[in-house]
Amino acid sequence: MPESTIPVLTIDGPSGSGKGTISRAVAARLGWHYLDSGALYRAVGVAAGWADLDLDDAGALVRCAFDTVVGFRDDAAGEPRVLVNGHDATDELRTETAGAAASAIAAIPEVRSALKERQRAFRQAPGLVADGRDMGTVIFPDAGWKVFLTASAEERAERRYKQLKDKGVSVTLDGLLREILARDARDASRAVAPLRPAEDAVRIDTTGQGIEAVVERVLALVPGHGA
Ligand SMILES: Nc1ncnc2c1ncn2[C@@H]1O[C@H](COP(=O)(O)OP(=O)(O)O)[C@@H](O)[C@H]1O
Ligand SMILES: Nc1ccn([C@H]2C[C@H](O)[C@@H](COP(=O)(O)OP(=O)(O)O)O2)c(=O)n1
């Protein structure tokens, strides 16, 4: 099948809007592949930290983006794990420190270019669900279905708080809300591929909506797959 005919559904939105959760569930229901594009940016941020790179040294960060090897696999319990340069970095990648580093390096245009083809290579039969900030606008502008997920900043911070607490990570709700707002502002204001809905995206506000309800709303967009 030529690459361009392979179906893609994109799910973009700010931190904590539920992109990863909804995309994984929708991909499983459709039997399609899943791309967590944020994990690539987080992996470069974490690898840059391991190498002690300066977050202001754009040249070194671009080289790091080209050199960092990222692998995705499920463990024996079916939980997704992410390998960075061969090391299981799943837990480190999910910290707010890694999120902030990812957001900073993601503003460098050459870092984004370095990761572009790697993201497009995930477009494999029978289909792809891709989550991030610019999936519908830049990486897969020809996607058949585009979703932009939102939720109030307070609810997003509460979701993240609960998620990190469940993992035993020590955080405060106030601190998380501040970090989420700072990251949203940086992701939405950068010059290249800012966080914004594609013109043809369906916007879904998930504030007060359960995960299953959102999954059904997204699936209803894909002919033959709604409830
Ligand atoms: N509609 C929803 N209602 C309640 N909690 C949700 C919803 N969507 C996601 N969550 C929870 O919020 C947390 C963050 O979701 P996640 O998928 O990681 O968001 P994102 O990828 O957009 O940052 C997870 O613990 C997830 O289970
Ligand atoms: N397609 C993407 C995905 C992520 N990024 C950047 C900007 C985000 O703040 C960070 C982390 O993204 P990620 O989707 O993992 O973060 P959240 O789960 O939404 O908190 O990476 C990006 O610029 N473009």
From TrEMBL:
What EC number(s) does this enzyme carry? 2.7.4.25
Q: Which Pfam families match?
A: Cytidylate_kin (PF02224)
Q: Tell me where in or outside the cell this protein is found.
A: Cytoplasm
Q: Which residues bind ATP?
A: G13, P14, S15, G16, S17, G18, K19, G20, T21
> Superkingdom, according to UniProt?
Bacteria
Q: What InterPro entries does this protein map onto?
A: Cytidylate_kin, Cytidylate_kinase_dom, P-loop_NTPase
Q: Does the keyword Cytoplasm apply?
A: yes
Catalyzed chemical reaction(s): dCMP + ATP = dCDP + ADP; CMP + ATP = CDP + ADP
Domain (Cytidylate kinase) spans 10-222
Q: Does the keyword Transferase apply?
A: yes
Q: Give the Gene Ontology MF terms in alphabetical order.
A: kinase activity
Q: Which UniProt keywords apply?
A: ATP-binding, Cytoplasm, Kinase, Nucleotide-binding, Transferase
Into which family does the record put it?
Belongs to the cytidylate kinase family. Type 1 subfamily.
- Indicate what this protein is called per its UniProt record: Cytidylate kinase
